[in-house]
Amino acid sequence: MTPPSDLAAGTPRQPPTAKGAPHPIRVVTSVISRTVLGSMVGLLVWAQLPVVALGWTAGVVQSGSMRPALMPGDVVLYQPPPRDRTPAVGQIVLAQDPTRPGHLLTHRVYQVLPDNDLITKGDANSTPDSTPIRPTALQGVARLRVPWIGLSVQLWRAKQPVPEAIVLLGLAILLTLAALPLHSRSQHK
């Protein structure tokens, strides 16, 4: 509303100025960085909720043997295997690797043998795995894939410091952009 003194003096009404309004680039970078960070936090929560609430197991994919279904850096959530039945052909399982003691293997069930041992195969591999997996070696059956959220863990384990540094630098930039105030200090004077 125009003050009565301005009307009486015949002063034309001026549109409100944008003084004090945040710069559009600052708003866009803030919204994008906060959206990305919020999505990452949501994915982290989503990846941990079944572990905490249901007793599932979470694992970070380390190799490309299951491409394109699973990519390095994906987090896969595994439901404990049912003890009364064998996983079906086509299901992705987590098992103790029979060829590398102390290591885990995530592959798809390729064949169930008469004694319920499993022959597995990575989707990107040309041949099935040579050593069968005993049912007692099963750790879980894949139920959920959370893409990319474990990328920094995968790079750390693979001892790839440059790509990991790039990921961490990107995260630091996102955090910095998200924390910047929308109004600069000069606009408050």
Numbering strands along the chain, what is their spatial order in the largest sheet? Answer: 1-2-6-3-4-5
Q: Give the total of domains.
A: 1
Number of beta-strand segments: 6
What value does the average pLDDT take?
86
Q: CATH homologous superfamily, by name? A: Umud Fragment, subunit A
Into which percent range does the helicity of residues fall? 25-40%
User: The CATH topology, please?
Assistant: Umud Fragment, subunit A
Secondary-structure element string: HHEEEEEEHH
**Which CATH class?**
Mainly Beta
Computed structural class: alpha+beta
Count of helix runs = 4
Low-pLDDT stretches are none
Q: Please compute the radius of gyration using only Cα atoms.
A: 27 Å
Amount of beta strand: 15-25%
Q: How many strands, which pairing sense, and closed or not: the largest β-sheet?
A: 6 strands, antiparallel
Distance between the termini: 25 Å
Q: Could you explain how this protein is built, in words?
A:
It is found in: Membrane. Keywords: Hydrolase, Membrane, Transmembrane, Transmembrane helix. This is Signal peptidase I. GO terms for molecular function: signal peptidase activity. Its main location: membrane. The mean pLDDT is 86. The protein is 33% helix and 19% strand. The protein is elongated. The chain has a single domain, classed as Umud Fragment, subunit A (Ribbon). The protein has a six-stranded antiparallel β-sheet. It has 189 residues and is α+β, with helices and mostly antiparallel strands. The longest helix is centred in the first third of the chain and has 31 residues. Helix 2 crosses helix 4 and helix 3 runs antiparallel to helix 4. 17% of the residues are buried. It has four helices and six strands, in the order H-H-E-E-E-E-E-E-H-H.
